[in-house]
Amino acid sequence: MKELIVFLFMFAVMGMQATAQTPTPAPLRIRTANPTTAKPTLPTIVTPTPIVAPTISPNAAKTIPGLSYQIKVRFLPVGSGDGSIVASVDKKWCDLALAEINAIFKPTGLRFVFGGLDAPRLDDLYNLDVPPQHPSYATGPETFRQKLAEKFPKELVVFVRRYLGNEKGQEKFYKAFHYSAVEADYVLAEPRSEPWALAHEFGHFFGLPHTFGDGLMGEIVAKPYPARVGYVARVLAGAIERGDVTEGNALQFLDGDGIDDTPPDAGPPIFQPNDKAGEEIGPGSPAEIIIPVTVKRSPLGFARKVNYVLRPDKRNVMSYFSQNERPHLSREQAQRVYDIVNKGTRHRLVTGQ
Ligand SMILES: [Zn+2]
Predict the structure, then answer these.
(1) Checking DSSP bridges between strand 155-160 and strand 69-77, what pairing results, if any?
(2) How far is CA 326 from CA 55, 285, 338, in A?
(3) Beta bridge partner(s), residue 117
(4) Within this chain, do residues 285 and 311 fall inside the same structural domain, yes or no?
(5) Which residues pair with 17 in a beta bridge?
């Protein structure tokens, strides 16, 4: 009923505007409930029901139809500094990692098999143990790794990092030492992390982006927790006010990967209950979070409050939510991985071309 009254009021005002005879009609004034208020405040329309993000993407349980491909994975342990310490990794670790990756990637039709655990010449691997954050990453080791990986065109090369667990600060960031990208011809792995961390890098290798937007999550995590939800709300309001998205479709602005069947995701920090650095947010945190958005622009100058319910797929392997059980790929993610091997830039892995 409340909505009906508001709409009747809106139509009455629109009617008055349409029939106004004066060439410059007086600006629209809204009477407020409190007549003593000097400056009238615009009424706010609250949408009766929240706008909910698409439901969690289903695990792509079925293998996509098409050819299945077998891909050899070669593990290369790297040396550090002067090359005196080489990553300790054995075939058992490689087999465990591949078993986990095969389980997660089963819907893609790809099957990964052990292709070797050795270095052609140890000298080649010196100084490769440099974290991706290192300034020389873009030139020295990056080029080095790339050139070495190119020696194995029919294999997926995984450089295995040395574990530095007892060295100062290592525990805090060693998980960040995984790396891959669709433009790199290798994966960089840290052998102490959960097996699905490597599956995540395989996802990048086969062209899958994060489910969240990297830039937006960087902005969110830089803010103290209480301000994070409000920040995302302002981002959404801005996108609606600029006309980048419609009000009904605004959560698509949080779609980090452009993949239809992975729901919008702003990353874990928006779920973080406090500001403990490095705290992991996993499936145990709430399934959804409400983002109350106030949109300033509307046809009549009203402010509108819209509640958006954000439900990221926390078990998606390309999310940043920590996992306590095996994560999954969505069906479209699986299709993209298959496509990049079947007819895209990773076709070399099955043909050597
Ligand atoms: Zn990643």
Answers:
(1) parallel
(2) 20, 17, 20
(3) 75
(4) yes
(5) none
Check if the beta carbon of residue 272 is closer than 8 Å to that of residue 279: yes
Q: How far is the CA of 18 from the centre of ligand 1 (A)?
A: 55
CATH number of residue 198's parent domain = 3.40.390
| CA 17 to ligand 1 centroid distance, Å | 54
Residue owning tokens 């961390």: 197
Contact between residue 295 and residue 303 where contact means Cβ atoms under 8 Å apart = yes
Q: Phi-psi bin for 2: left (phi > 0), alpha (psi -120 to 50), beta?
A: alpha
What is the enclosing helix (H) or strand (E) of 208?
none
Question: Whole domain around residue 160: which residue ranges?
Answer: 69-208
Name the average pLDDT for the chain: 75
Q: What is the pLDDT of residues 121-166, one digit of tens each?
A: 555 555 555 555 444 444 556 667 777 888 888 999 998 876 555 5
pTM tops 0.85: no
| pLDDT score, position 140 | 58
For residue 318, how far is its CA from the centre of ligand 1 (angstroms)? 7
Domain boundary residue, one of 175, 208, 241: 208
Specify which residues 304 forms β-bridges with.
Answer: 45, 295
Q: How far is the CA of 201 from the centre of ligand 1 (A)?
A: 6
Phi, psi of 328 (to 5 degrees): -135, 170
Separation of CA 205 and ligand 1 centre (Å) = 10
- CB contact at 8 A, 101 and 199: yes
For the segment 187-191, the average pLDDT, to the nearest whole number, is: 82
* Residue 320 counted as domain residue: yes
Q: What is the whole-number distance in angstroms between the Cα of residue 217 and the centre of ligand 1?
A: 12
Do residues 105 and 337 lie in contact, with contact meaning Cβ atoms separated by under 8 Å?
yes
197 C-alpha vs ligand 1 centroid, how far in Å?
A: 9
Higher pLDDT, 335 or 39: 335
What CA–CA distance (Å, rounded) separates 101 from 154?
19
User: Domain tally for the chain?
Assistant: 2
Q: How many CA atoms lie within 13 A of 338 on its CB side?
A: 19
Cα–ligand 1 centroid distance for 176 (angstroms):
9
